[in-house]
């Protein structure tokens, strides 16, 4: 899952991003509204965590611009103002959910995951393919009764492949949605991760390489 955190308080932004990365998400951070719009013009995110009270370009304006452009990401708006009127205004600007500060980190994670599920076609809470079961909420993958010791990136790649429902997913898309802005697109990161994932999944093989196209379950 690719997440953009837009928060002008740098320490808070970096703390939230670090926590979300520990939850297996690929996270980018920007500190103002203009940068958020610049970033979304070149990168597809699943969820945007957007501070409403941004200096310069207000969070409502950012949200309205994204909605007007038909940008597909779900927006979770954060603000220190938690009145009913504030929530109504934020949701009216195009936000999909609203979380007042201060917030519990566990609730933030739960809301992000819920929004990510809504940004794709309807999916069951547990992804199942044959004897493989993957639960995104608990970050647990099991095959034939055996829990798989997956790294966060291996889990993310497997989740993306299962979510595709048998469709081919290119290496470029896996890199864009499973890694953050610091990933080097010219490395063999995806290929290496797929190789490790195959070893951990065991036999019979589940991941097929489609030449010059990508990978699929």
Automatic annotation (TrEMBL):
Modified residues (4-aspartylphosphate): 51
The keyword Hydrolase is annotated on this UniProt entry: no
DNA-binding region ranges: 124-217
UniProt KW Phosphoprotein keyword: yes
Name of protein: Response regulator transcription factor
Domain of life: Bacteria
Domain OmpR/PhoB-type: 124-217
Entries under InterPro entries matching the protein: CheY-like_superfamily (IPR011006), OmpR/PhoB-type_DNA-bd (IPR001867), Sig_transdc_resp-reg_receiver (IPR001789), WalR-like (IPR039420), WH-like_DNA-bd_sf (IPR036388)
Keywords: DNA-binding, Phosphoprotein
Species this protein is from: Nonomuraea harbinensis
Domain Response regulatory per the UniProt entry, residue ranges: 2-116
